[in-house]
Specification:
The complex is a heterodimer. Helices cover 79% and strands 0% of the residues of chain A. In chain A, helix 3 crosses helix 13, helix 4 packs antiparallel against helix 5 and helix 10 runs antiparallel to helix 13. Chain A is mainly alpha-helical. By secondary structure, chain B is mainly α. Chain B folds into two domains: 33 residues; 202 residues, Orthogonal Bundle (MetI-like fold). The longest helix of chain B is centred in the first third of the chain and has 34 residues. Classes of the chains: A mainly alpha, B mainly alpha.
């Protein structure tokens, strides 16, 4: 036994090396990095070598509209999500656990329910003859059905619904980390609740808001399913346009150029987020 | 004061009311779909004129639905196992390894979670067409393992960071081989992390739509692809029936998860 122990000694001093990461590294290199780089190369080689695909994307008003739509929806979705999520996260951070666990349960149920199921529900709810329009007409608020689907309104409602958990959950963590004493001190010093909110609670939760907001913005930019189903064909967003260029038009050059633009914007914002909050904090959602 | 639940005053009522509204908003589509799946109106009128089980009968009468669900379960199980095993090995290196570029490596392995899926979907679609894996189960499993890997790595590294390595070293001093020590000391200690990783990795594949749409062939389609195809045709109540079963699955998964977590943390 003692010989055995001596034999094992050197291993104690060697920490786990990079070796364990090799299978993951090979998987990601071979089936993620190589395909993505190969795709991006097509954007400058098809149909002929050069930057003509990018010239087309930036020169044509139709594509400019898609870019504008995408950024507009992502911005509005992020703003609405932040405003709606903040009070909920605030309450969840301080609520009695029994009550809080019910709200948490609802958030998890919504988040874990199949994405297509949730989007399907919104398609039915928002349609011309859907429950929302019928209810509003029955109570006499409107006389004509509101156009809630196949436009950017529908996309925004559906996207806010999907993004809310991603904003609420990390924000609860941020708010829980704030010491309630700081706010009691403010009140003792005569600050009104509004002042305490504006000058203490809000600034202290700003890192969480920035991190969550950036994550929601990035996810919204590249979202495919919900904008495609709720937005209709005339309000295409970037991800749907990329899919259409490849799948229906078989224009690999143009499609991969648009994919490269989306990738570049996403990665730039991701890097910004890593600088803001660090890799670990960012994943507080799960 | 603002963070003291008992001293918020009128603000508490306002904030609680708002939280209740948001909770209702989050619950609305889920409850609505379940109610609708029992409604008798083909045109999805609500409240339904009557109640029926015929959409469920239609669902089970069409073998394509069951086949798609089984395909999804098969692919998601394989992808989850692969992602957890590969992710577990990688987590040891990411948490304990002392080599240059560790954070870069971590960032790289988590990138599939950040990159818009549509970019990955067309990239892997083109790549698999070239190497002959397009429309195959193997192709599906590989692509979904890539997407599920970050969801496995995050909970496992978190659990591993909370585990004191000197306990493992103690086992080695007492004569266990390093492998034995990991297997019998470290793994049981981080089992909640591994369990969460398995659930998240499974869901990442089970719910995945975009890669699946590109990869699917007439003979191989997952449940999300089947739903997607039906959605593009019409808003048939059969989709509501299928969706309700998925809601039931989510609920059971939530209950099982909380039970197992409670048991494991004892």
């Amino acid at each position: 036994m003692s010989g055995h122990l001596l034999h094992r000694q050197p291993i104690l001093r060697t920490p786990d090396g990079i070796g364990g990461a090799l299978p993951a590294l090979i998987l990601i290199a071979l089936f993620f990095v190589v395909p993505v780089v190969a795709l991006l190369l097509r954007s400058v080689t098809e149909p002929v070598p050069g930057l003509q695909n990018y010239a087309i994307l930036f020169g044509d008003g139709t594509y400019a509209r898609v870019f504008f739509n995408t950024f507009l929806v992502a911005t509005v979705v992020t703003a609405v999500t932040v405003i709606v999520a903040f009070p909920v996260a605030w309450m969840l951070a301080i609520m009695p656990p029994a009550l809080g666990s019910i709200v948490f349960g609802i958030i998890i149920l919504s988040m874990w329910t199949n994405l297509l199921t949730r989007t399907y529900a919104w398609m039915v709810l928002l349609q011309r003859t859907g429950v929302i329009n019928r209810t509003l007409m029955d109570i006499g608020l409107i006389s004509e059905p509101l156009p809630l689907i196949n436009n950017l309104t529908g996309v925004t409602i559906g996207m806010v619904y999907i993004m809310l958990p991603f904003m609420i959950l990390p924000l609860v963590g941020t708010l829980r980390a704030i010491d309630p004493m700081t706010l009691r001190a403010a009140a003792l010093c005569g600050a009104s609740p509004f002042d305490a909110f504006r000058r203490i609670l809000l600034p202290l939760s700003l890192p969480g808001i920035a991190a969550g907001g950036l994550m929601v913005f990035v996810m919204s930019l590249g979202y495919f399913v919900t904008p495609t189903l709720l937005g209709g064909t005339s309000n295409m967003m970037l991800a749907a346009m990329i899919a259409q260029m490849i799948q229906s038009l078989l224009n690999w050059g143009l499609g991969s150029a648009a994919a490269f633009i989306l990738l570049l914007v996403t990665m730039a914002l991701y890097a910004l987020q890593l600088r803001l909050v660090g890799a670990k904090r960012m994943t507080g959602g799960i | 004061m603002l963070l003291d639940y008992d001293r918020l005053g009128w603000l508490r009522a306002a904030l609680l009311g708002f939280t209740g509204l948001v909770a209702a908003f989050l619950l609305l589509p889920v409850v609505f779909i379940v109610l609708l799946s029992f409604g008798s109106s083909r045109w999805l009128a609500f409240p339904p004129p009557g109640w029926t089980l015929k959409w469920y009968e239609e669902l089970f009468a069409d073998p394509a639905w069951l086949e798609a669900a089984l395909t999804s379960a098969r692919i998601a199980t394989m992808a989850a196992i692969l992602a957890v095993v590969i992710g577990l090995l990688a987590s040891f290196a990411l948490v304990r390894g002392q080599f240059r570029g560790r954070n870069t490596l971590r960032g790289l392995l988590l990138t599939p979670m950040v990159l818009p899926v549509v970019v990955f979907a067309i990239a892997i679609y083109a790549f698999f067409l070239r190497i002959g894996l397009g429309g195959t189960t193997a192709g599906f499993v590989i692509a979904h393992t890539v997407l599920a890997l970050p969801f496995a790595i995050i909970p496992i590294t978190a659990a591993l960071e909370g585990f004191d390595k000197s306990i493992e070293d103690a086992a080695i001093v007492c004569g266990a081989s390093p492998f034995e020590a990991k297997l019998r000391v470290t793994l049981p200690a981080i089992k909640i992390g591994i369990f969460s990783a398995a659930i998240f990795a499974f869901l990442a594949s089970w719910d995945e739509v975009v890669v699946a749409i590109f990869m699917a062939s007439p003979t191989l389609q997952t449940l999300p692809v089947k739903i997607w195809g039906s959605l593009r045709q019409d808003l048939s109540p059969v989709i509501a029936a299928a969706s309700s079963l998925l809601v039931l699955l989510t609920l059971s998964l939530m209950i099982v998860t909380s039970l197992i977590r409670r048991k494991l943390s004892k």
